Amino acid sequence: MLQEILIAGFGGQGVLSTGQLLAYAGMIENKQVAWIPSYGPEMRGGTANCGVTISDEPISSPLVTEPTTLIVMNRPSLDKFEKAVVPGGYILINSSLVDQKVKRDDVQVMEIPANQIAEELGNTKVANNVILGALIELTGIVSIESVVESLKKVLPPRRHNMIPVNQQALEKGAQLAREMKK
Amino acid sequence: MSKVLMKGNEAIGEGAIRAGCRHFFGYPITPQSELPHYLAKRMPEVGGVFLQAESETSSINMVYGAAGAGFRVMTSSSSPGLSLMQEGISYLVGAELPCVIVNVMRGGPGLGNIAPAQSDYFQAVKGGGHGDYKLIVLAPASVQEIIDLMQVAFDLGDKYRTPVMLVGDGILGQMMEPVELADEVTVPEIAAKPWAAGGLQGREKPNIINSLYIVPEDCEELNKKLFAKYDVIAAEETRWEEYRLDDAEIVLTGFGTAARIAKSVVDKARAEGIKAGLIRPITLWPFPSEVYARAAEHAQKFLCIEMSMGQMLEDVRLAVNGKKPVHFYGRSGGMVPLAKDVLAEVKKIMAGGAE
């Protein structure tokens, strides 16, 4: 099993931390993991992305140039990375913020209104975890339990009150992906 | 022990602290700035000194002072910063001062860019400053190995009274990987340094830290002494990793990030019936020449993979000594080789195509 996930959006959308959460969950499940951010000359409000590799084998390069899954949190990221996804791979789109359609027909696309769902849950900050929940459902890459476990380690104790709403977001995203798959 | 996810740059800092380093002098530069960020927070927690100097030239000379006073001390930078430090490194060697110098390499020459590269190999292993000297140069290939080699770096520096350099690249610095860390930070025992300028302590004559040898005979004696030391280091401290080498017909080689990519290509090539193996130098100086010489007895071809235009290549060729052809595949200027392209090169070489 080798999955290479590229998560891309605006700085401030939690793109880098979502990737870290996923990597941490993989580590908890004793898989090989690597995380790497784009660290080019970025600017505030500009695009940010990170690559997460989760594998049963040692990871050679952490760079994700041909993702098996692309998570798109804003429109510029779709323009930039749509072509990079491997044929047969997944593109998960935050359709609350991206109105553009995927042009390719050799990838599996799922549009998730992540901000809208997060708003319904009472906190727009958990939009990234709605998408992460859908990713987990589609790929089986890690379990939701491991992500929740990771939240306990990644979040400082004073923010642990945020764990339940994040868990709801993960479960809601997974549920939506289950329904869309049918 | 607990397993934590850690950035390479942070691991350099934590590794240094666990090796007993309590003095850091440096100046920020991408892609290693997380290291001073981390130590700015961490050093005060363990009663250490973090100081952001006004330049790399100042940093390296502050290292000279702290090392001369007998402390475990380090500095870090990225390629252009290391160029600025070369004079100070030569002085540290001349005064036989132990310290650790980190280079998280980026694209060059010139101001270049902040993307990962390995093009400071020559500067690191051939003596980037003036005079006859070598540095012990360590090249980790994972975040865990960074932690482990930081301890080695400080120990070897003290043991041989020599500066030690640890080289990485932007990928190793920026990436996060799991590392095993002891839950408690214990201060390791550090042998006494009776040569240090740390006060008279009952002696009659003060110790003097200096790299001036005005009488040529004296300076030649210093050089002989240094090179006798280098002979011992080469005999006892050479480190490398071998992978699937025993029956290899083509030997891939590289260090750090390039070696990780090469290792994955070894497996891919084997899966396609090509007998490939790997030699990964962990010490770039001393270079594990004998391992290549031995491999040249049975292997047919060598392929050196680097994130440069080919620098370690020269040492591989010296080690193979004309017995077998040594090919090269590299990307430079901040570009990183892709496994599939290296595999294509391996196939081409084994088909007799590339020369």
UniProtKB/TrEMBL annotation, chain A:
Record keywords, A-Z: Oxidoreductase
Domain annotation Pyruvate/ketoisovalerate oxidoreductase catalytic: ranges: 11-175
Keyword Oxidoreductase: yes
SUPFAM superfamilies with a match to the protein in the record: Pyruvate-ferredoxin oxidoreductase, PFOR, domain III
Lineage: superkingdom: Bacteria
An example molecular function term from Gene Ontology annotations: oxidoreductase activity, acting on the aldehyde or oxo group of donors, iron-sulfur protein as acceptor
Pfam families on file: POR
Name of the protein this chain belongs to: 2-oxoglutarate ferredoxin oxidoreductase subunit gamma
Organism listed in the record: Desulforamulus putei DSM 12395
TrEMBL record, chain B:
Sequence ranges assigned to domain Pyruvate:ferredoxin oxidoreductase core in this UniProt record: 248-342
Keywords, sorted A to Z: Oxidoreductase
Span of the signal peptide: none
Entry GO MF terms: oxidoreductase activity
Keyword Oxidoreductase attached: yes
Pyruvate flavodoxin/ferredoxin oxidoreductase pyrimidine binding domain span: 14-197
PANTHER family, sorted: SUBUNIT OF PYRUVATE:FLAVODOXIN OXIDOREDUCTASE (PTHR43088:SF1), SUBUNIT OF PYRUVATE:FLAVODOXIN OXIDOREDUCTASE-RELATED (PTHR43088)
Protein's name according to its UniProt entry: 2-oxoglutarate ferredoxin oxidoreductase subunit alpha
